[in-house]
Amino acid sequence: MSQDSYYVDLESLPQVIANLSYVQGELLREIRRLAERFELLSFRGDDMVSNNATREFRRLALDPDDQSLTTAIDVLEDAINHQVEALSAALREYASMEETNTVPPAEFQWPNGRVDHAGDGNGR
């Protein structure tokens, strides 16, 4: 197995999708909210060190053109969206295969008149 792959039990796929959606919807929103609070951050003092520290913390949290926390959150959200879409497609395909491979109920009548329901061997 390569380093970039993983295995998901298809039976647990709905829960995996729900967990990823929760991370995306709740946790990342909270992290983004906390990052945006850096805009309110101000170190005490009017000295150059305090002013530079305030500016640098804001840049690290919010600058869309840099490797900021909000930029990382955007990348993570996109990756989770892509993964949820891929897993949802896999789940639809799996459900379709399950439906295709399901034997419909049927009756079979033997020459002696005995009837089996769906080949269960319990003739009537």
Structure description:
This protein has 124 residues and is mainly alpha-helical. It has one domain (10-117). Helix content is 57%, strand content 5%. It is built from three helices and two strands. The protein has helices at residues 13-36, 48-62, 69-100; strands spanning 107-109, 115-117. It has a two-stranded antiparallel ribbon with strand order 1-2. Helix 1 packs antiparallel against helix 3. The longest helix is centred in the last third of the chain and has 32 residues, at 69-100. The two termini are 51 Å apart. The model has no long low-confidence stretch (mean pLDDT 80).
Features:
124 residues; mainly alpha; two-stranded antiparallel sheet; 57% helix; 5% strand; rod-shaped
Helix content: 55-70%
Proportion of strand residues: under 5%
Strand order of the largest sheet: 1-2
Order of helices and strands: HHHEE
Q: Which structural category fits the helices and strands?
A: mainly alpha
Shape: rod-shaped
What's the average pLDDT? 80
How many strands in all?
2
Radius of gyration: 28 Å
Write a compact overview of the structure shown.
The protein starts with 12 loop residues before the first helix and ends in a 7-residue tail after the last strand. 57% of the residues lie in helices and 5% in strands. It is rod-shaped, with a radius of gyration of 28 Å.
Per-chain topology:
Layout: H1 13-36, H2 48-62, H3 69-100, E1 107-109, E2 115-117
Antiparallel strand pairs: 1-2
Helix pairs in contact: 1-3
